C-alpha cells in the first residue's frame, strides 16, 4: 500500500511540474491557473507553495520559482540518500554479524 501511495505522490508531483513547465510559468508575468485534481496533487502543491517554489501572482494564478524548486528537490534527494545509506549500513551490519537467519 505504501508503494502505491509513493507512486501516486510522485505522479502528482510530475503532473504539477508538467503544468508549470509546459506553460513556461516560471515568472510572475507567466502565471497560470492551477487547481489540484485530487488529494495527492493538493498535498504536493501545498508542499511546493510552503517551500517557496510556487507563488501566487494573482488570485488563482501561480508560477514556479525555479531556484527554489531546485533547492527543494536537492533537499528531498539529500534525505533519500541519507535513508539509503542507513539501510545499506544496517544490511552490512546484519551481514557482518551473521544474523540474517535469526528472524522468522
Describe the overall structure.
The structure is a single chain. The chain has 104 residues and is mainly α. The chain has three helices and three strands, in the order αβαββα. The protein has a three-stranded antiparallel sheet with strand order 1-3-2. Helix 1 packs across helix 2. The longest helix is centred in the last third of the chain and has 32 residues. The two termini are 23 Å apart.
Mean pLDDT level: 87
Element string (H = helix, E = strand): HEHEEH
Number of domains: 1
Distance between the termini: 23 Å
Radius of gyration, Cα only, in angstroms?
19 Å
Give the strand tally.
Answer: 3
Give the biggest sheet.
Answer: 3 strands, antiparallel
Strand order of the largest sheet: 1-3-2
Amino acid at each position: 500500500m505504501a508503494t502505491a501511495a509513493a507512486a501516486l505522490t510522485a505522479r502528482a508531483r510530475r503532473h504539477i511540474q508538467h503544468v508549470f513547465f509546459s506553460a513556461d510559468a516560471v515568472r510572475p508575468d507567466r502565471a497560470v491557473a492551477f487547481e489540484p485534481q485530487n488529494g495527492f496533487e493538493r498535498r504536493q502543491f501545498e508542499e511546493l507553495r510552503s517551500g517557496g517554489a510556487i507563488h501566487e501572482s494573482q488570485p488563482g494564478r501561480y508560477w514556479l520559482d525555479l531556484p527554489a524548486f531546485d533547492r527543494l528537490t536537492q533537499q528531498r534527494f539529500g534525505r533519500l540518500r541519507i535513508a539509503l545509506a542507513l539501510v545499506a549500513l544496517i544490511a552490512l551490519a546484519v551481514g557482518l554479524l551473521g544474523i540474517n537467519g535469526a528472524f522468522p
